[in-house]
């Protein structure tokens, strides 16, 4: 099963097949509006503007599992993204990315790219070690703004932990996407 086989819920409650993005390179991100990393929306939007014509889609999935940092309704989240960061990439309905109610898409992403989260992730590693020690050494999403890169074939290529900025991902996208 590949990423394009999953269905997700849009912010207005409709169901959308990720098959709609078949043949595109995806950057799938769990997002939050009240996180110290929330300014990454700006970088994600910049990536989307720069690489969309070459086949990139950024897909945002709000999640309230990390410090209650995404408390709003889907409508409030959409308004926040548009007003504060001029986001034009799809931001879907709020989901869980870990635990018994984790969306199957994120169960798949985590299994395919379990991550390499350790002390080199600095402040975030210390924070997770202190607040969610059970997550260390697992495939769980550790915090908001974990990013998964999916190739045009629907296969998960790489996981970027939250401390990796969108700007740092640009070089990988440039190598993966066809030339302009």
From TrEMBL:
Q: Which family does the entry's similarity section mention? A: Belongs to the glutathione peroxidase family.
> Is Oxidoreductase a UniProt keyword of this protein?
yes
Q: Keyword Oxidoreductase: yes or no?
A: yes
Gene Ontology MF annotations:
peroxidase activity
Single Gene Ontology BP annotation:
cellular response to oxidative stress
Classification of source organism: Bacteria, Bacillati, Actinomycetota, Actinomycetes, Streptosporangiales
Please report the name of this protein according to its UniProt entry.
Glutathione peroxidase
Provide the active-site residues from the annotation. Answer: 35
InterPro entries, A to Z: Glutathione_peroxidase (IPR000889), GPX_AS (IPR029759), GPX_CS (IPR029760), Thioredoxin-like_sf (IPR036249)
Q: Which CDD domains match?
A: GSH_Peroxidase
Query: Which keywords does UniProt give here?
Result: Oxidoreductase, Peroxidase
């Amino acid at each position: 099963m590949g990423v394009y086989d999953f269905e997700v819920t849009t912010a207005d409650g409709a169901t959308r097949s990720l098959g709609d993005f078949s043949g595109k390179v995806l950057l799938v991100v769990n997002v939050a509006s009240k996180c110290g990393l929330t300014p990454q929306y700006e970088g994600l939007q910049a990536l989307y503007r720069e690489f969309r014509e070459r086949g990139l889609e950024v897909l945002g999935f709000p999640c309230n599992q990390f410090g209650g940092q995404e408390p709003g309704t889907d409508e409030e989240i959409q308004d926040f993204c548009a007003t504060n960061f001029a986001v034009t990439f799809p931001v879907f309905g709020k989901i869980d990315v870990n635990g018994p109610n984790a969306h199957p898409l994120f169960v798949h992403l985590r299994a395919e790219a379990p991550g390499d989260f350790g002390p080199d992730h600095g402040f975030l590693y210390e924070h997770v070690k202190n607040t969610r020690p059970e997550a260390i050494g697992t495939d769980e999403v550790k915090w908001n703004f974990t990013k998964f890169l999916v190739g045009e074939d629907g296969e998960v290529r790489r996981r970027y932990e939250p401390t990796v900025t969108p700007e740092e991902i640009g070089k990988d996208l440039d190598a993966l996407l066809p030339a302009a």
